Amino acid sequence: MTDDQILELYERSLVDVHRAASRLCGADRAATEELVQDTYLALVHHVREHPDEVVGVGWLVVTCRNRFLDLHRSEQRRQRREAAASTATPPTTPAPERSDDITTRLAALPALQRSAIVLRYVDDLPVGEVARLLGKSVHATESLLARGRSTLRATISSEESA
């Protein structure tokens, strides 16, 4: 790919990559921006290693998702190490203010539930693939999805009654 092709792909794909990253990261704008940057950095590295290969928007969205999952797994390992070293409980994400925006509703979910919901219903992956990507059993993934759907329904119901 030439520099002009990379720039054209960036301009054509930025909205889609940013949307995918924001759904995965929830309300954490800094994490979203970092994930988007990491995705485009991966593009540059990939093009340097495979100059004749042309990639598209789909490649970038999948790369964004894979980078998120890598970071998520790394964070889980870090939390397990800290939990083993300390009895402190991990911090919880505060509930966002009332909003009709699906990204804000997704942000209210715990990270693992949010990841499962986004992979299953936004990326339209089968439950078995979601389980594999999250490093969980199919049963555990189905449970995550059920709890995530339940939480989203409760959020929607409480906003409608308010």
Automatic annotation (TrEMBL):
<feature type="domain" description="RNA polymerase sigma-70 region 2">
    <location>
        <begin position="9"/>
        <end position="78"/>
    </location>
</feature>
<dbReference type="InterPro" id="IPR013325">
    <property type="entry name" value="RNA_pol_sigma_r2"/>
</dbReference>
<dbReference type="InterPro" id="IPR013249">
    <property type="entry name" value="RNA_pol_sigma70_r4_t2"/>
</dbReference>
<keyword id="KW-0731">Sigma factor</keyword>
<feature type="region of interest" description="Disordered">
    <location>
        <begin position="75"/>
        <end position="101"/>
    </location>
</feature>
<dbReference type="InterPro" id="IPR007627">
    <property type="entry name" value="RNA_pol_sigma70_r2"/>
</dbReference>
<keyword id="KW-0804">Transcription</keyword>
<dbReference type="GO" id="GO:0006352">
    <property type="term" value="P:DNA-templated transcription initiation"/>
</dbReference>
<comment type="similarity">
    <text>Belongs to the sigma-70 factor family. ECF subfamily.</text>
</comment>
<dbReference type="InterPro" id="IPR013324">
    <property type="entry name" value="RNA_pol_sigma_r3/r4-like"/>
</dbReference>
<feature type="domain" description="RNA polymerase sigma factor 70 region 4 type 2">
    <location>
        <begin position="101"/>
        <end position="152"/>
    </location>
</feature>
<dbReference type="InterPro" id="IPR036388">
    <property type="entry name" value="WH-like_DNA-bd_sf"/>
</dbReference>
<dbReference type="InterPro" id="IPR014284">
    <property type="entry name" value="RNA_pol_sigma-70_dom"/>
</dbReference>
<keyword id="KW-0805">Transcription regulation</keyword>
<dbReference type="GO" id="GO:0016987">
    <property type="term" value="F:sigma factor activity"/>
</dbReference>
<dbReference type="Pfam" id="PF08281">
    <property type="entry name" value="Sigma70_r4_2"/>
</dbReference>
<dbReference type="InterPro" id="IPR039425">
    <property type="entry name" value="RNA_pol_sigma-70-like"/>
</dbReference>
<dbReference type="Pfam" id="PF04542">
    <property type="entry name" value="Sigma70_r2"/>
</dbReference>
<protein>
    <submittedName>
        <fullName>Unannotated protein</fullName>
    </submittedName>
</protein>
<dbReference type="GO" id="GO:0003677">
    <property type="term" value="F:DNA binding"/>
</dbReference>
